[in-house]
Write a structure and sequence with these properties.
Elements (H helix, E strand, L loop, with lengths): L2 H18 L2 H21 L12 H7 L12 E7 L12 E8 L4 E2 L4 E4 L7 E7 L6 E12 L4 E4 L18 E8 L9 E8 L2
Antiparallel strand pairs: 1-9, 2-8, 3-9, 4-7, 4-9, 5-6, 5-8
């Protein structure tokens, strides 16, 4: 073979080898080889594919049903608080916050409790009741009895309708209210409960 043919061939081989050993080229080649090998093994039954299950919304779509508005929508927040000046509350007294949620509203997390210093052993539970008759639907739906003796701002997702991954949508209009236990709430104690929800 003449030298004039050999030199271009050697240069071409050197260039190819140089290109192959570049990090980006090596990575691209490696990915192609991996994909081709994995595809071949999957077709041959040598590799089990990863399973995917449908969440609730995806299952509704797959079944040809509409995704309910409580699944994807703008959330709002109900702010329930004591007035700046009040006479306090005794054990077993209820607090009417005057906030009404409409039927079809979905409760969300996180529930935030913020309060000033109060009386030792004093607790507050927050629940739902009928807005007209005032009959309890669930006295601890939003917040189980939680200490409010020391000043704090905490996320307290302890209500019976917001725990354990459940989906709770109101089946009737409901008012948010509180129940005092343990010890009295002193006059003018600041208390605020923030409850997120998706509107009906």
């Amino acid at each position: 073979m003449k030298l004039t043919y050999l030199i271009p061939a050697l240069v071409a081989i050197a260039l190819v080898a140089f290109a192959l050993f570049q990090p980006t080229v090596l990575k691209a080649v490696g990915e192609r080889v991996h994909d081709a090998l994995f595809s071949h093994m999957a077709r041959s039954g040598l590799v089990l594919g990863m399973a995917e299950i449908n969440g609730r919304a995806a299952a509704e779509v797959a079944a040809g049903r509409k995704v309910l508005p409580d699944t994807q929508g703008e959330s709002a927040r109900a702010v329930c608080e004591m007035p700046l000046v009040h006479a306090g509350a005794a054990i077993d007294d209820t607090i009417g916050f005057g906030v009404i949620l409409k039927k079809g509203t979905r409760l969300l997390c996180p529930v935030t409790l913020s309060n000033g210093a109060g009386t030792a052993a004093s607790t507050l539970a927050v629940g739902l009741r009928h807005p007209v008759t005032k009959v309890a639907i669930d006295a601890t739906a939003i917040l189980a009895a939680t200490a409010i003796n020391a000043a704090q701002t905490v996320q307290a997702n302890t209500g019976t309708k917001v725990t354990a991954g459940q989906r709770y949508v109101l089946d009737q209009d409901a008012e948010i209210y509180g129940t005092v236990a343990g010890a009295a709430v002193p006059a003018n104690q600041a208390i605020r409960v923030e409850v997120p929800y998706i509107s009906a």
